[in-house]
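Q: C-alpha cells for this one, please.
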Amino acid sequence: MSRYFVTVARGLENIAAGELSAIGSTQTQCVPGGVYFEGDQSTLYKAHLWMRTGNRIFLPLRDFPARNPDELYEGIIKFRWETFLTGKKTFAIDCTISGQHNPDLNHSQYAKLRVKDAIVDRLREKTGGRPDVDVENPDISISVYIRDGHCTLNMDATGGSLHERGYRSPDAAAPLKETLAAGLIALTEWDGKTPFIDPMCGSGTLPIEATLKAANLAPGLLRDSFSFMNWPDYFEPRWKELKEEALSKVISVSPGQIFGFDQNASALSAAKESMKLARISEGKIEFARRRFEEFVLPEGLQPGVLIVNPPYGERLGDVEELKVLYKLMGDTFKQKLKGWRAYIFTGNLELAKHVGLKASRRFELYNGAIDCRLLKYELY
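A: Here is the predicted structure, written as C-alpha cells:
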C-alpha cells in the first residue's frame, strides 16, 4: 500500500474523496486544495482512469528540512534516484517556494538548479551516467515544494493535468476546466438520467462532462499516456485489464436529454468538434445557436437540472451591462423552469444579487484564483 496525494480545485475536496472511495481507496484525508489517499498500484491506475475532479496525482517521496541551499541539496541527494531514472529516461523539476524562508533560498529557479545538481551528482556516483533534462515532455516529473524551511518531495504520477481529457479543440476558449465542470455537475447531484441544460455552453465543457458522466465513461480512457507509465514498477497488463474493465461499463445515453445553447456560432462549432473527440455519438448532445433572451425549454421535456456559467464582468462597463443579464436569468428561471433545479456559477457575488431569487444553497469554490460560488435555486 502507498500513500498518494491528488490536487483538486478548492471546494471540491469532498467530491474527490468520494470518487476515490468509490474506486477502492482504503483511506482518504481532505486538506485545502487536495486529498491524501491510500491504495495499491491498481488504486493509482483506477484513479487516473475514473477521477473526474482531480487535477494531478503525486507520490510523496520524503520530507526534510530545507532552511538553506545546502540542506536542500543534502535532502535531495539522499533519495535513490537510480530506481526511477534508469536507462536514458529524461526528467524535469517543478519547484514552488512559499512562506518564511532563508534569503539564500528565495527563488524557485535557484532551488530547482540545486535539486537538479543533487540528482545528477547522485546518479553519476551510483551509475556513472547523467540523465538529461526535458522540460517539455519528460519521462519522470519531480515536484519540490518548500515552505517555511521544510521541503516536500513528490513524484508526479500524472504528467499533464487530468483536466486535459484529450477532447478540447485547439481553437476552443476554455474559461472552465473539465475537472471543475465535472465537480459542478457532481454538486448539482444530477443523476445522469433526467434532462440537463447549459444555456450558455460556450465550447461545450459542461454538456460534454455531463454526457461522460451519464455514459459512465471513464475520462482517463480519452488519454493515451500518464507519467506513471515511465515508472520502473509500471505493469502494463494490469493497466490494460483495468481499461478493458472500464470500457465494459460504458452505457448508452438517450438522445434528447442533454442540451447546450449559445449565441456564438464558432464556440458551438468547437463544442461539436470536442464532442467527436470525446467519442460521443452525434445526437447524444443537442447543440443549438440561441441567445439567452430567446430561451425556451425543448417541447415535452421533464424537469431536470439547468446550470449556467455566465460572464463575471472584468471591467466596470461590463458589470453594468451584465446586471441586466443576471436579472434576466432570474426572471427566466421563475417563468420557464418550474419544477427544475437551476444553478449559477459565478465569480461576481455583486452581480448575483441581481438574479432576484434567494439561493437555497451556496457552494464556495475557486475557478483558478477567482473566488466563486455555485448558487442553487429550487423552482417550485
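A few notes: The two ends are 49 Å apart (CA to CA). DSSP finds ten helices and 14 strands in the chain.
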